[in-house]
Specification:
The protein is an all-alpha fold. It has one domain. The chain is 90% helix and 0% strand. It has three helices and no strands. The longest helix is centred in the last third of the chain and has 32 residues.
């Protein structure tokens, strides 16, 4: 049973190394999806795409900065 648990934890770690990063990216995706449904038809896709791109880049940049600060100490 311990072996199975270790295997599952390793597989989980392949996809979710940092829980906060995964959660923030999930929030960006949900916001982009909500915006795509709420925005008027001609603007829905470009606005959702911009929110998704800029949100993911902001989350990634923030995570890199926080990680760099932690490693400096």
């Amino acid at each position: 049973m311990n072996t199975l648990r270790a295997i599952l934890e390793e597989i989980w770690g392949l996809f979710v190394d940092d829980g906060n990063l995964a959660l923030a990216l999930l929030v960006c995706c949900v916001l982009a999806g909500a915006l795509a449904r709420a925005a008027p038809a001609p603007w829905a896709a470009p606005l959702a795409g911009a929110v998704l791109l800029l949100g993911c880049l902001a989350v990634l940049l923030g995570n890199v900065v926080v990680t760099a600060r932690r490693r400096r100490r």
